[in-house]
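Try this one yourself first.
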């Protein structure tokens, strides 16, 4: 009832020409991928009548090519985004489908608030459509996030020009709100800070001038892994599987973006048996521990991905070079996001995080050499609340004091929901309506 009333209020405000379009940036795995050449789906539909997760051809299709001597940003294949993953259909048998709801939830919630993804103009008032437009930014989540940020910059520029042309508004007066989830928040944060600027291979940082923030009023982040996620480390070490289907560590480890989801060393996510804190972005450690792509059991899959390489020694050398450059690039990405800077006063940054699920925060090696999750903190099951908040007191000398975040939050809302469930949570959408109406979450947070 409340959300319906908020939707009616939003439509009345839209008729006065006071509402901005919304751009939705989904998280990891949130965009379908297909072959540009053949049109064959590679991610987004699975099982008996769709993409077979474990077939060699499909493994080669989804994995990022490992090419020695080629920079991370130039590692390309012919896969292109092909729509939002509304729900992941996994089929064990032809007549037994299981639908895993993905990002269709947030689309439905925005529709309940009066947004429209399929209508260009539904009547006009003061030069603006009477329903607010909703755009979904599709991107290849496997590639480095600053490349996706550059695509987001181009995407927004195109929408600004179109709205300006269609509604006779000066381009500089066209504003948007961005709603992002999980990895999509890292893409959005980089875009706001640096626009389409690339990361320099020399280690020099791009100019932090907030060029992407022009025309953005609100950034609404759901479950962002701002401080990384141990879950990403475990998925790279062990593979990603749902109901027996999934991708091996070699495939996951080929994605440059996955390393950008790793925790920083200073946040104490990996502890050796001597209680020494380890760097998740240390390729030598991964190789010595035979983790992920270096696991001998992964060699058959590695042979599929590198069919022209005959010896395991040569294959491992290619893997090592690939992992090293991806990890080095991820460090530069982290450094770029971690640079302290105050956003423009016109930009508001809002955080919604889950804080009711025990979530892995530390992976520790026992005396016998076995690794187990040693510590859990409250979170959403994938991202701990302190990571979403980017709480720099965690793992430091002042871990018992109040949270200290370098991000200038305009408001923080804790929701009792799991990682993906946040996108369709009624409590989230109720508060979202107030944010998009420029009222803040609560009076006290304005």
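Now uncover the answer:
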């Amino acid at each position: 009832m409340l959300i319906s009333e908020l939707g009616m209020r939003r439509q009345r405000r839209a008729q006065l020409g006071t509402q901005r379009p919304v751009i939705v940036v989904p998280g990891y795995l949130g965009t379908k991928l297909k072959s540009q050449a053949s049109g064959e789906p590679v991610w987004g539909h699975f099982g008996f009548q769709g993409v077979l997760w474990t077939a060699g051809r499909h493994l080669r299709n989804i994995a990022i090519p490992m090419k020695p001597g080629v920079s991370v940003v130039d590692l390309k294949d012919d896969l292109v985004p092909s729509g939002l993953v509304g729900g992941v259909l996994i089929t064990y048998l032809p007549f037994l489908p299981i639908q895993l709801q993905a990002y269709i939830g947030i689309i439905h919630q925005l529709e309940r608030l009066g947004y429209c993804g399929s209508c260009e103009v539904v009547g006009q008032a003061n030069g603006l459509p009477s329903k607010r437009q909703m755009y979904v930014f599709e991107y290849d989540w496997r590639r480095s996030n600053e490349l996706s940020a550059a695509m987001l910059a181009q995407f927004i520029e195109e929408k600004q020009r179109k709205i300006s042309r269609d509604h006779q508004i000066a381009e500089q007066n066209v504003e948007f709100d961005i709603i992002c989830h999980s990895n999509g928040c890292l893409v959005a944060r980089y875009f706001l800070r640096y626009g389409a600027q690339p990361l320099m291979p020399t280690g020099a940082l791009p100019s932090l001038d907030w060029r992407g923030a022009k025309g953005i009023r609100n950034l609404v982040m759901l479950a962002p892994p701002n401080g990384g996620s141990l879950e990403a480390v475990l998925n790279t070490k062990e593979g990603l599987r749902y109901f027996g289907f999934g991708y091996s560590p070699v495939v996951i480890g080929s994605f440059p973006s996955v390393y950008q989801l790793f925790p920083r060393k200073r946040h104490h996510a990996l502890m050796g048996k001597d209680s020494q804190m380890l760097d998740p972005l240390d390729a030598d450690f991964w190789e010595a521990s035979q983790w992920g792509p270096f696991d001998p059991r992964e060699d058959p899959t590695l042979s599929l991905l590198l069919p022209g390489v005959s010896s395991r020694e040569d294959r491992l050398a290619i893997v090592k070079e690939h992992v090293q450059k991806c990890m080095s690039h991820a460090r530069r990405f982290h450094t770029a996001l971690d640079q302290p800077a105050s956003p423009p006063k016109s930009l508001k940054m809002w955080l919604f995080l889950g804080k009711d699920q025990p979530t892995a925060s530390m992976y520790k090696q026992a005396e016998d050499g076995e690794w187990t999750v040693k510590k859990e903190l409250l979170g959403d099951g994938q991202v701990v609340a302190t990571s979403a908040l980017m709480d720099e007191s965690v793992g430091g000398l002042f871990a018992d004091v109040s949270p200290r975040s370098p991000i200038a939050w305009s408001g923080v809302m804790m929701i009792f929901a799991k990682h993906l469930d946040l996108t369709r949570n009624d409590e989230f959408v109720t508060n979202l309506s107030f944010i998009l109406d420029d009222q803040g979450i609560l009076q006290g947070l304005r």
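Discussion: The domain at 2-33+105-229+340-445 is CATH 3.40.50.1820 (Rossmann fold). Residues 312-338 form the longest helix (27 residues).
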